[in-house]
């Protein structure tokens, strides 16, 4: 039986440097979504982790060159519930918007090298 699919728009923080996917033009990353309506949820409600993928080469290029852990993104796409207990929900990303950037770039990310090179005199 297939998992039900839902179109979602999610705001969340990037957990780690996005990685190239299994095939050309794809990327994967984890997005951490925190509950925002404190009046309607229990105080100990955990954050939700979304295991995100994209096959859009334009989004992949941005993810692999510019996105850092701690960046706040708004993504939209197709969500799938996890198939096993404890696994993160999956989201296939169709659009990506950067809402806020992390305060400091991560040194190991190629985007950091591009930023550093563009700031050099």
Describe this structure in words.
With 121 residues, the chain is of the alpha+beta class. The chain has helices at residues 57-66, 110-119; strands at residues 5-14, 19-20, 27-33, 48-54, 72-80, 89-100. Strands 1-3-4-6-5 form a five-stranded mixed β-barrel. It is globular. The termini are far apart. Mean pLDDT is 81; it is low at 112-121.
Q: Any chance you could write out the topology, listing elements then pairs?
A:
Elements: E1 5-14, E2 19-20, E3 27-33, E4 48-54, H1 57-66, E5 72-80, E6 89-100, H2 110-119
Overall body shape = globular
Uncertain regions spanning at least 5 consecutive residues: 112-121
- Rounded to the nearest angstrom, the radius of gyration is 15 Å
pLDDT averaged over residues: 81
Secondary-structure element order, N to C: EEEEHEEH
Number of β-strand runs: 6
Keyphrases for this structure?
121 residues, alpha+beta, five-stranded mixed beta barrel
Short description:
The chain is of the alpha+beta class and 121 residues long. The protein is 17% helix and 39% strand.
């Amino acid at each position: 039986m297939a998992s039900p699919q839902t179109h979602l728009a999610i705001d969340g923080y990037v957990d780690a440097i996005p990685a190239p996917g299994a095939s050309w033009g794809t990327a994967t990353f984890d997005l951490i979504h925190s509950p925002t309506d404190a009046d309607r949820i229990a105080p100990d409600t955990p954050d939700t982790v979304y295991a995100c993928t994209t096959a859009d080469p334009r989004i992949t290029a941005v993810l692999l060159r510019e996105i850092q852990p701690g960046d706040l993104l708004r993504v939209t796409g197709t969500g799938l519930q996890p198939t096993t207990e404890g696994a993160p929900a999956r989201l296939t990303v169709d659009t990506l918007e950067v809402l806020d950037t992390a305060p400091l770039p991560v040194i190991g990310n190629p985007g950091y090298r591009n930023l550093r090179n563009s700031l050099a005199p």
